[in-house]
Amino acid sequence: MEKTTTGIGVLDKAVSIIEACAAQPRSLAELVDELRLPRATAHRLASALETHRILRRDQQSRWVIGPSVAELAAFARDPLVDVSTVVLRKLRDATGESAQVFVREEEVRVCIAAAERASGLRDTVPIGARLAMNAGSAAHVLIAWSDESDVRKIMQDSAFTARTVAGVRRRGWSASIAEREPGVASVSAPVRNRRGEVVAAISVSGPAERIGRSPGTRLSQPLLRAAAELETHL
Prior knowledge:
Keywords: DNA-binding, Transcription, Transcription regulation. This protein has 10 helices and 8 strands. It is α+β, with helices and mostly antiparallel strands.
C-alpha cells in the first residue's frame, strides 16, 4: 500500500509505527526491519507513543495499539459505527461468537466495531486493527463487488481464488477456515448503502474447532439478518 507522507519526518515515522502495530503486534526488531528505521529512532518513537497510551506492550513485550486510540475514536462520530455497536452485540449473543464490522481502506480492511465473546476461546480483533485484503471471509466480501481490475490486483497475492469470489457473489456471503490465521474460522456478509454499494462487511469469527468445518451452515442466516438490520438503519 502506498504510504501517505507529509514531509514532517518524525510525524510520518510515528504514524508508520502506529499502522504497523495496528496490523499485528511488533517487536522492536520487526519495526526496524519492516520500516527501515534506525533502531534508536524506532525505539524512541515507539516508547513515546507508549507513554501517550497510543501503543502498549503485550505479554511478549511487543507493541500493539493502546487504549487511547479507542478513547479518541469515540469522538469520531460515524453512523455506521454507532449502529454497528448495537447490532454486533445482538449478533454475538445470537451466535455465541465474536462479531466485527470491517471497512476497506485501499489494500487493507479496518475493524471499526466489534463485540467479543465474554469467555472461552474467541477470535479477538481489536477496533482499529488493519488486516490485509488477501485473506479472510471479510476480505472476500469487500472485494467481491469491486471492478475486475481491482479483483485481479488483490488476487495476485491472495489466499483465495476467483472461484471464491464467484461463490460470494452467488450466495451473498462467504466463509473461510484457517485462511487468515491458523485455527480461526469466519463467515462474512456485505453491508450495502441505499445505492446498493458495498460499504462494509459484517463478520462472525471464532475457533474453527467450535464453529465447525461448514461455518456458513450455522452462521450465515443470523449474519444476513444482522447485515439487513444495519442496512435498514443506514
